[in-house]
Specification:
mainly alpha; Ubiquitin-like (UB roll); DNA polymerase, domain 1; two-stranded parallel ribbon; rod-shaped
Length: 224
C-alpha cells in the first residue's frame, strides 16, 4: 500500500466518522477537566495541613525555649535571714526586689527594723537579704555575697559584747552557745516565729527545755 492510498483511506474515515471523533475528544477533555478540578483542592488542603503542622511544631519549640530560659537564667536564688517569719533560701524571678524576697519569707516580724533595709534594691543571684531587729545596727542589710552573713548581722551592738540575738540568729549561730544543740535551736526558732519574737532574754524560759538554771547560765551570751 502506497502512502497516497493510506492518506486517502484516513481522509475517508475522517469524513465518515467525524462526529463520533468530536464526541470522543469532548469526553476526554471533560474527564480531564473534572479530574483536575476535583484533585486541586485536595492538594491545597494537604499543603495547608503541612504548613499548619510545621507552624505548630515551630511554636512548640519556641515556647519550650522560652520556658527553659525563664526557669534557668531568668531566676535568682536569695538567702533571706533575720527578723522574718520564715528564714530560708528562695527562688525568685530575675529583676525582683528585696521587698519581694521578704514577702516570700513570710514577711517581717513585729520586731523588724525595715528602716535599715533598701526594699527597692534589685536582687542578685546568691544574695543575702538580712532584716535586722529594732535596736540592731548593720552596715548593709542586703549584701550580695556568695558566702554567709557577716557575724555582726546576728549579734547585738548595744554594748553587751558579742551576744547572739535570739530574734535574728540562724540555727547555726544559736548552736554556738553552750547548752543549745540542734533540737533546742529548732525550738527557739519555732517559738519566735509563733510569737513574733522574744521581748526579753527571760522569755527563753517559755521554750521547752530552758529552765531557770539553763537561762541564768547562758543569758550573758544572749540578747534581743
Amino acid at each position: 500500500m502506497t502512502v497516497e492510498k493510506l492518506v486517502e483511506q484516513l481522509q475517508a474515515l475522517w469524513e465518515e466518522h467525524r462526529s463520533q471523533i468530536y464526541v470522543v475528544i469532548g469526553l476526554v477533555l471533560a474527564v480531564g477537566f473534572w479530574w483536575w478540578h476535583t484533585h486541586q483542592p485536595v492538594t491545597d488542603a494537604v499543603g495547608a495541613t503541612s504548613q499548619s503542622s510545621a507552624y505548630s511544631a515551630t511554636s512548640a519549640v519556641t515556647s519550650s525555649l522560652a520556658t527553659s530560659t525563664e526557669n534557668g537564667s531568668g531566676r535568682v536564688w536569695v538567702d533571706v535571714k533575720g527578723a522574718v517569719n520564715k528564714p530560708g533560701v528562695y527562688h525568685l524571678k530575675k529583676g525582683a526586689r528585696v521587698q519581694e524576697a521578704i514577702a516570700a519569707a513570710g514577711s517581717q516580724t513585729s520586731l523588724a527594723d525595715l528602716n535599715q533595709v533598701n526594699l527597692a534594691k534589685e536582687l542578685q543571684d546568691q544574695q543575702v537579704v538580712y532584716v535586722p531587729a529594732q535596736g540592731e545596727k548593720v552596715a548593709d542589710a542586703t549584701t550580695a555575697t556568695t558566702g554567709t552573713t557577716d557575724a555582726t548581722s546576728a549579734t547585738s551592738q548595744s554594748g553587751q559584747g558579742d551576744s547572739v540575738n535570739l530574734n535574728t540568729a540562724t540555727k547555726e549561730q544559736l548552736q554556738t552557745i553552750d547548752g543549745i544543740g540542734d533540737k533546742k535551736a529548732d525550738k527557739i526558732i519555732a517559738y519566735r516565729q509563733e510569737h513574733g519574737g522574744f521581748k526579753t532574754v527571760e522569755d527563753l524560759k517559755n521554750v521547752d527545755g530552758f529552765g531557770d538554771k539553763t537561762v541564768a547560765k547562758i543569758k550573758d551570751r544572749l540578747a534581743v
